[in-house]
From TrEMBL:
One of its GO terms (molecular function) is transmembrane receptor protein tyrosine kinase activity. This is Serine-threonine protein kinase, putative. It comes from the Eukaryota. PANTHER family: PALMITOYLTRANSFERASE, PROTEIN KINASE DOMAIN CONTAINING PROTEIN. It comes from Entamoeba invadens IP1. Its EC number is 2.7.10.1.
Amino acid sequence: MRCILFILLVPLSSSFLCSKGCSSCMADYTCNTTCSDTFDDDHTCNSCKWSSPSALNPVAYLKNSEGQCLKSNSILEKDKWIPDDQYIQEIFPGIPNIISFDSETPLDYSFCRYPMKYRVGKWFKINMTDITNRFLLAVVEKDSDVIISIDMSNSKRDEKYGKCLAHATSSKSSSNVLIKGNFFPGNYVNGKEIIFFTFFISTDTLKTVNATFTVSFSLAQIRDNTTIISQKETDEMAKNLSLVKELKLSFDSIGMFFFPSCMPTFLSKLVVFTITFNGNYSLLLSTKRSNKVNYLHLNKIIFTNDTLTAVCVSMWSGTKMSMLESEQDGLSVRVRGDKNEQKYSLVTQDYYSEILFTYQVICPNNCYAENGQGECLSSEARCLCKSGYGGDDCHLLCYYHDNWQIKDHDNLCYFGSNKCDQYCKCESGHTLQNNLCVSNSCHDNNKLDIEECKRSEYGCAQNCYCDTANGFFYNKTSLKCQSINCGNNKIDQIRWGTNSFKEEECDSGVNCNDECTCIEGYITNPDNNTSCKLKSIGGGVIAGIVIGGSVFVVISTTTIITVILLFINYKQIDIEVFKEQQPTFHYYINGSVNCEPNKESKFEVEPEQLDFGNPNSATAIMDTRFEKIDIKNRSRNKYMMIIFHTLNSPKYVFHFDPQVVILKPRASRIVTCYMTIYCTTKLKGMKIPYTVWFSQSRGTLNEIALLLENKNFETWNNSDQKYMDKLSKSVLKKYHHNLIMTTDAASSTHIDMDELSISEKPIAEGAMGRVYMGNYRSVPVAVKQFRWENLNEEEVAELKRNVITECEIMGKLRNPFIASYMGSVTYIPQVSMVIQFFILGSLGEYLRQEKEDYVKIPYKLKVRMLFDTSRGMQFLHENRIMHLDLKPDNLLVNSLDCNSACSIKITDFGTSRFTKKSITNSEDKGLGTPIYAAPETFKDEYTFAGDVYSFAITAWELYYQVEPYAQLKSIFEIKRHVEEGKRLSFDQNIPPLYKNLVEECSRADPKDRPSFDQVCNSIVKIDEDVNNHLEEGNQNERMVEIVNKRTNRIQKQINSFSE
């Protein structure tokens, strides 16, 4: 059995969502043609073309309000980070300034969040030299639904780069955007140095916008709160400890700039919130889920002469501290109740970050710590209780170690037994019986799905769970209760319940099963009581059988009649049954007339056109729908049989209930057709045949149905035909016709396998499988087949489940730097995934001189490729996905233009696992490629920091374009080299910032490696320094040659494959 990964670029349906730059899509926002001229041709067609400001005749491409990218030559000329003074308007405190953006407004680029990217914008400056009130408020009021950004700098004109002192962005719907805060440290004294703050106010949309810009100043003070956590709210949360409240904080648009009292030398952005509660519980504040470094400050607010001062009381750092905590940066702070209002600040130095702030009540009654009953474990958001104490608050357990710890326990259940809560009370839906909680179903000698056994069964306690108190456990293989003594090779007397005893029938002997009972048809062997022997029947028994047989016939007849009557009045429907394929009936139409139902033919089938309740819409995949069909026999004296010949395909199931109907003269019957679709496939117009037979003998019709069942054209033989000829003499009329589908399968990511094909020889091979060339509707595909060999049936089933889970995860991932997932095939054993196909192949094909497409990649493009990789990995890690095999071969080249919106897309994280914790078990051993593997993976420890290490090796290889550890002769030498703390060497030519990044990412201790958030920030600085490290020579012609050659090569392969 094999799992196939398809990488393709093909049109699946015209109903997919498409960007403005694309004419048709094969998946949501994935174009199957080239993008429009003004859009970046990255398959998404969602980003405008990028043009370099350093170009000889620069042009810019911006979107208008309709989403179309328009070309503009109206560009502001400048040779520094800031334009000449004639383009900068000086403003003054408290005076509104009119701003108008239109098609004539010159375009420029900022020094903050959007460097080197043209925007519609205007420049302003304000003289700060004589400003005494330090709290600045810069506000842009706008009149339209565009996104406006404010960037602020205190850099001087002659500096090489403009420093991004502050940044803020509005939402479309908000009426304003503002920057507020104090940008001078507390000990700052102006020696009358002339200081200007420069503002760049911009938007990325070509649209007429009118706005006003005002800068004002006031005394420094902490003003409004982002949120207030009140006594009423926390008291309600204390009633439900599972409740976790969330607050999404986008620092791009909220917060104030300050030099916080707890970090007085670091300009930071912060949001302030108030906590007011006093109770016998704690509050847990956390930002762990965002996996970003931030800080929490507790401040004491002091008013002096109308001036507000924040004094630092406590500070908590959100940096990772240990391996157990290391996979998530962020805060986790326990706050105790206080009768006074507490003012907190959430602080970050990443002005663009989005933080998910959560809070919940933990440790009620303070875990009775004052009585020594327990302590609050904030890292796990619960109480850690001493022996004999438990529950949410470490109260005295009513029942502990098989003993009651309280006197009055008549109406209590055993703590620790199923459905018994922490106070020894039964949960809702259960009643107390002999100190156990029993469901209504269990009481009636049935069992719920979550229960283990019926109470009448061997080893089952009264609550329908195995009787652990008397040494029984649930055997997950046999799905029965089993004694712990079974298997000791001796016969034991087993007790369960209150007064029930049973002796084992056998134990570990011949014909003895895992439950120590004899297999069916065997009894205990008296000569060896641990084994079983075949039952024998004596003469007396035979006589008893004869006598008892007569009695049995009477009783069974009565029972059957009773069951039939009950069945008529009650029929429980299991919807899963209708998702199963039905038997095939041979479509025998010899001598049959193709005839629509009518009066002359004496039968009716209404309706014949089936829409399953979707007359004007498509039917969703995996949805089971039904249509009722009225069948009537209009004959006065003949029986009629109708057989629905189902189409057995794994793509869909049409299940008729019943499939074969025999009607008396003048009778009718409702047949229900259930339809389940498993992939997007052609349904509309499809026909389901049925045959109609008339005879005066009901028995003849039954015989015909039995003869046709489980037969088809290939298995139908001469013997069958002779018997049919004999039966046909009693058949008076035969007809055949079709039901017609009028609905269709909805567009989805579930792909029809029949439209995919692959070549015989692989074009690439890796640790996880082989890659083949293929096609889909004459469009090239790359097909990856995972290695399934050497796996047993259970391992194959588990791997299939994991791959299907990966398909579901990837279907939800949309990011410019991740190869877009477009579909999967999951309805057959060969589970498949469908993602983009890239003509330029993988980065690994360009790095080595022995490769056919080797090219000396320009340093600027190398930095861009690293940046795109880090942003893709940042996205994966934010979604708690480890790659586990990051290397050049798994980086697909989207463009060889360093100015493209996207140069690299990450693929092949099928070996990754969706996780919330580090993988430390042995199930995922050997993940990744050894050359790129982090040292801890040699001990089967897989963490997010391992991906950062792989990134370091990839970055080194990308810079030098040679194989890492080429001087070492084997994988074992590489492992030993790395475990000894040795790393890849550098020469003197590598830029210092680039070298530092590789060294930081390849540190031995995982917790010392940066996160991909930090890696992205580091590469921004490397990019700012890139012009100081440009190489001689131009590789553009060589790269154009490679693109053309690869395109021609792919086309030839497609042509040969299609022939």
